[in-house]
Description:
It contains eleven helices and twelve strands. With 313 residues, the protein is of the alpha/beta class. The mean pLDDT is 96.
Amino acid sequence: MELAQVSTNAYACLQLEGGLGASNSGFINLGGGLVVDSFWDLPRTRELIKHYSGISSDTPRRLINTHHNGDHTWGNQLFAEAGTEVIGHRLCAEYFATENPSGMQMLTKAEGLPPAMEGLAKALRRFDFEGIELTPPTTLIDEDTEIDLGSTTAKLLYVGPAHTAGDIVVHLEDEGVIFTGDVLFNQCTPVGWEGTFDNWILALERLAELEPEIVVPGHGPVGTTEDLLELKEYLEYVLAEARSHYDRGHTTLEAAQAIELGRWSEWEEPERLAFQVNRAYREFDGIQWDERPDTSKIFSEVAQLRDEFTKSA
Ligand SMILES: [Zn+2]
């Protein structure tokens, strides 16, 4: 975990070790302190708080959740207990009902799992999900909102459902910085849950049009507008490829095995391609964006692709 100053008043706390759940957080040292996302477990969130307290010793006034996924929110309680206001989109708060820390903790301790689940469990074992009390945002927004930071404002833009139902990004326009949450995976293969290709692509276009100089992604290193457009291109490519396999009657796994990733094969965890192929097929089948995907099927395809990519590398 490392702290980086990205502009005069904005910082990023980056977990660049890679893999599932290695998420990033942000901090704006204005208006009493505004944190963008906590981390997946309490030990990591404590370390995060330590980094931010080196910038400002006051308890941060606000915490924004960019979306509901645990790697961005399960440390919320450490902020809320200290009196920080937790802010998020209404759908972000609602989707907390789908989160299950004790189930995750059990999975990390389980033995004799089938290979697909073992892959997931292995990725989770570096986290400690003990003691987590889900703490959803209590200040809810439904649309774009401005937050008064005294000398300037931060804009919260609702761009979901893209990566999840309740995606918001934080734009500090004065300093050319956007904290994207998981609307941007930078140099690593995106995972997606509730949302549509169209909305995700539109979200990336909207953010690119704001021409930020600095883009702090939900995962991966700090980037620029170019990185937003790169993910947009990836999504468009995978969608078109998936369509052609779908039309030829191929399964999602066959499609994912056949799609040539080119330069995107260099991205971390290219096997997560299975997430986007499955999302594409659900859309082609007319399944609504908010129907929960079959995650065990997706993780099993991810595991199979991982083996194949590793062998061919
Ligand atoms: Zn994430």
